[in-house]
Amino acid sequence: MKESSSVIDRRFSVAPMLDWTDRHCRYFLRLLSKQTLLYTEMVTTGALIHGKGDYLAFNEEEHPVALQLGGSDPADMARCAVMAQERGYDEVNINVGCPSDRVKNGSFGACLMANPETVAACINEMRKVVDIPVTVKCRIGIDDMDEYADFARFVEVVAEGGCEVFIVHARKAWLQGLSPKENREIPPLNYPRVYQLKQAHPDLHVSLNGGVKTLAQAQSHLQQIDGVMMGREVYANPYLLADVDSTIFNCSNPALTRDDVVAKMQEYINRQSETGFRPWHAARHMLGLFQGQAGGKIWRRYLSQNGTGKNPDPDLLSNALDAVRQAQQQVVAFNRE
Fold first, then answer.
1. Among residues 39, 41, 35, 31, which one has the least CA distance to residue 14?
2. Where residue 311 falls among pLDDT bands split at 50, 70, 90?
3. Per the CB 3.0–4.6 Å rule, which of 71, 182, 220, 267 could disulfide with 45?
4. pLDDT confidence tier of residue 104, bands split at 50, 70 and 90
5. Which residues are part of a known binding site for FMN?
6. Which superfamily, per CATH, for 5-247?
7. What is the pLDDT of residues 117-175, one digit of tens each?
8. Site Interacts with tRNA: which residues (predicted)?
């Protein structure tokens, strides 16, 4: 049996990102931080129950890792929660924040903020059959339901259903008129509303998501709430995770160097045996590893040019690193002249 949600240290997590946070990405991110809580891409109940693929595959090294689930039928959600627990996930998270048409048409995602009773019913049924935490990721509001009172009612109803952990994207979502990308950028951030929720419900764990770009910002938010979730910034500049364990979790374990990460990821690529796997499937998540470093453009160019096509370089990462180091040495030699 899994232990209670208090065992998972939720001070810092990486957001579920569709088409990005697959198992190869999560393995890579885990090399950079041992403590960060990682989330899968959203998986729908329909895919898990009726799909033919293995949507729950993950590497044991990824722990702690949470499955984000999309759905609204309590029985189906409970069935999928059992599947997640049996496979070894540390948490199941319900998507109540994604505003895309695809999830809206499936009656899940951000549109569920208008139906907190449905979310509460899902939570209740899921908690009956699993021991791992069942959590919710939501927005601060949708459409014209964007006052604090609307947000507070949603949380209170869902909490009554048994949810103790809320990850809140501090923007409202417009279900009509804005694309998912625009919904991540156009609605203004409202961090005080998330702070207010925590002040009103000190018994709940409240994490904040949206617009956080530095660990200094994360530390500032942690003065007001329990946890911070970062998404796009981590994907674009993943090596910032190398400072998370020491800065956020106060751990003394030394971070891997970029060279060490490349070596371990090359080993990871070499041992993949599934049909259809290509080095690019893992390397695409590493384009930002040398962000802000000399040779960063060379790294990205080498991966892009040699990781795709009919005959990808099997030693893609090692050779890309060699190209970066050669370029850096040339810069040093030039500066000495």
1. 39
2. confident
3. 71
4. low
5. 16-18, 68, 137, 169, 209-211, 231-232
6. Aldolase class I (3.20.20.70)
7. 999 999 999 999 999 999 999 999 999 898 999 999 999 999 999 999 999 999 998 88
8. 95, 181, 184, 300
Burial environment of residue 26 by CB neighbours within 10 A (0 to 12, 13 to 18, 19 or more): buried
* Residue with the larger pLDDT of the pair 253 and 262: 262
Spatial neighbors of 106 by CB under 8 A, at least 6 apart, are 44, 46, 70, 71, 72
Whose tokens are 């999830």? That residue is 103
pLDDT(114) > 90:
yes
Q: Phi-psi region for residue 276, left (φ > 0), alpha (ψ -120 to 50) or beta?
A: left
Q: Is 209 exposed, middle or buried (0-12, 13-18, 19+ CB in 10 A)?
A: buried
Q: Report the length, in residues, of the chain.
A: 337
Averaged pLDDT, 309-337: 85
Residue type, 292: G
Q: Which residue has the higher pLDDT, 71 or 105?
A: 71
Annotated active-site residue in 80, 98, 111, 138? 98
- For residue range 46-94, list pLDDT tens digits in order: 999 999 989 999 999 999 999 999 999 999 999 999 999 999 999 999 9
- Intrachain domains 5-247 and 258-336 with the same fold: no
Does 258-336 carry CATH code 1.20.120.1460? Answer: yes
What are the domain boundaries of the chain?
A: 5-247, 258-336
Binding site, residues? 16-18, 68, 137, 169, 209-211, 231-232
